[in-house]
Design a protein that fits this description.
By secondary structure, the protein is an alpha+beta fold. It is built from 16 helices and 25 strands. Strands 2, 3, 4, 6, 9, 11 and 12 form a seven-stranded antiparallel sheet that branches. The chain has a seven-stranded mixed sheet with strand order 20-19-21-23-22-24-25, sandwiched between helices. Strand 2 and strand 3 form a beta hairpin. It is globular, with a radius of gyration of 29 Å. The N and C termini lie far apart (109 Å).
């Protein structure tokens, strides 16, 4: 009884602090829930990005991120319940749970009650007043479990009322998770990757310089993204990673990695092994590079559910398919395409698992390559499956001329096929992106992009890039696309910001510029630039020249006035 009264007091204090409504809490487990003083201390600034200690992981996600559908939803008599589903990894226990609920009434006459529960457990009931509210309160940590969980928001009223509009982006759930074990099998690794909380998100790809490096990393990056349901943070720093993926042939593997294989030493073909010595390690290998590529293709095509330490080619016969199969021969569905088509479905490049697509990286540094892998991983997520049969290469390789071409990385116009066929929109977008990195002003369609001092810092951090999709002028059936960045810009930042945000869904037109400010589409085929636009672009391109000319003209006028005055003085004297 004391626990029930104390928990009710905690919720009540949180409600009064919000100053928006009255609430009643129900029975709360005594295992680790904060008291009233802790509630007062945990303000909005303390609820931030994931905070990790040696044994405990505290992480926060918005309801819109978990739901993945809308930034807001309505609770009313016509929609009395909303379920938000999310997944927890198999090796953790929830010791503390909080919900920040932000909502506003649909009208001044809104009333009724809001009930919040987890997995059908006892509900916390809130009686809000008819005004905007934002409050935090503890959830029952005992109701959470490994695997799938459901946060239930319900509405009830004794009389007709419009209900409440819940801001899913501002409403956030915060969990403190304590490990109860380790990730010890391929199946548990896959479940951990798919989790919404405490998942391995920073992944180190450790590969050696070789002719197949782009192929190996591209396939593995897509396989990881399909398991995670989002684009991980790719890195080459194993010391800072949540998961290390070693990709190499047998001869280049360390003894610990070889010991993780089925034979305990060397593989007898394409093989995937797993070990965990404190940090999970995934080993993708074969007797040679060709077999290592086959193992990477297995990893991108098949699920690990039901498998423990190793996965070989024979296991692919019974393993479940990874992802969702796209419509067969989907390339015939789009005789015309633009960036919107690509952002929504991956077409025309994703058709038939990329069998008619060449993916070329124009990257020179590891960081830029990781940005390119992020973009490719997002494309696989949109497609629903990995591009298993695409051709992969870097800027020095010759891409097949009969394949659609996707070039990812900075300086992509140095690729002959891109430079030869680039539409005016692409070149205008590159000029706009280059100007936006240092000049002042506002982004303009097909004209220029500026940034003030504060926005320039944001743009440098988030990155700025350019996307374009167009036809090969010499082969009307061939599509060419590029996702690139201006010279001297970081494609790691640009690629990650595009792949891991809503910027991707805003791509449209024949060319577009993306940055921290958003996406600006350019499409002369739809709306031709007016004479005013052309004058504005000319003026922006020659702003400094015009300033010097005006300064020179002012100086000449000043000198003319000075000597004219002296001449008049002499004449008068």
């Amino acid at each position: 009884m004391f626990v029930r009264v104390l928990s009710s007091a905690v919720v009540g204090l949180a409600v009064m602090a919000a100053g928006s409504f009255s609430a009643w809490g129900q029975d709360m487990s005594p295992t680790g829930q904060p008291d009233a003083s802790q509630t007062a201390a945990m303000d909005a600034t303390s609820i931030a990005t994931p905070v990790t200690t040696e044994a405990v992981n505290t992480e926060e996600r918005s309801l819109s991120d978990l739901d993945g559908q809308a930034d807001a939803f309505i609770l009313s008599t016509s929609r009395e319940r909303v379920d938000i589903r999310f997944f927890l990894p198999p090796h953790v226990d929830t010791t503390e749970a909080w919900l920040r609920l932000a909502a506003r009434p649909a009208s001044d006459s809104t009333g009724g009650l809001i009930h919040v529960s987890v997995n059908g457990g006892e509900a916390i009931t809130i009686r809000p007043q008819a005004r905007a509210m934002e409050a935090r309160f503890a959830l029952f940590s005992d109701d959470f479990r490994p695997g799938e969980n459901t946060l239930e928001l319900a509405y009830s009223t004794d009389m007709p009322a419009p209900g409440w509009i819940v801001d899913a982006r501002r409403s956030q759930i915060r969990l403190t998770l304590e490990p109860t074990g380790v990730i010890d099998t391929l199946e548990s690794l896959e479940a951990a990757l798919a989790a919404d909380f405490a998942a391995p998100r920073r992944i180190a790809l450790i590969t050696d310089e070789s002719r197949d490096r782009v192929t190996l990393e591209s396939l593995v990056a897509q396989g990881l993204a399909l398991r995670a349901g989002q684009v991980p943070l790719f890195t080459s720093d194993a010391a800072e990673a949540d998961l290390v993926v070693r990709i190499a042939d047998n001869d280049r593997l360390a003894a610990d990695d070889r010991a993780a294989l089925r034979s305990g030493d060397r593989s007898n073909g394409p093989e995937i092994g797993f070990r965990n010595d404190g940090i999970p390690h995934l080993v993708i290998t074969g007797r040679n590079l060709d077999e290592a590529v086959a193992a990477a293709r297995l990893m991108a095509a098949r699920s690990f559910v039901g498998y423990r330490q190793t996965f070989i080619a024979a296991d692919a016969m019974t393993a479940a398919r990874l992802g969702v199969r796209q419509i067969r021969d989907a390339r015939t569905m789009h005789t015309d395409a633009d960036l919107r088509t690509f952002a929504d479905s991956g077409l025309p490049f994703s058709a038939d698992q990329g069998s008619r697509t060449a993916v070329q990286f124009s990257t020179r540094f590891d960081a830029d390559r990781h940005g390119a892998l992020s973009v490719l991983a997002r494309a696989a997520l949109i497609s629903g499956e990995a591009w298993l049969y695409a051709w992969y290469g870097d800027a020095d390789d010759v891409a097949p001329a009969d394949h659609n071409l996707l070039v990812i990385g900075p300086g992509s116009t140095e690729i002959a096929a891109v430079d030869r066929n680039a539409p005016p929109e692409l070149r205008a977008a590159l000029r706009a992106a280059e100007r936006s990195r240092g000049q002042r002003g506002l982004m303009r369609l097909a004209a220029a992009a500026y940034a003030d001092a504060a926005d320039a810092e944001v743009g440098t951090e988030v990155g700025i890039g350019v996307a374009s999709l167009f036809r090969d002028q010499a082969n009307d059936g061939r599509w060419i696309a590029t996702l690139t960045a201006p010279d001297m810009a970081s494609f790691e930042a640009a690629g990650r910001s595009l792949a891991r945000s809503d910027l991707w869904t805003a791509l449209e037109g024949r060319a577009a510029v993306w940055s921290a400010r958003g996406v600006t589409a350019l499409d002369y085929a739809i709306v031709a630039p007016t004479m005013t636009d052309r004058i504005q672009e000319f003026a922006v391109d020659h702003t400094r020249d015009a300033a010097f000319l005006l300064m020179g003209a002012a100086f000449l006028l000043l000198m003319r006035a000075f000597f004219g005055r002296r001449k008049r003085v002499r004449v008068q004297s």
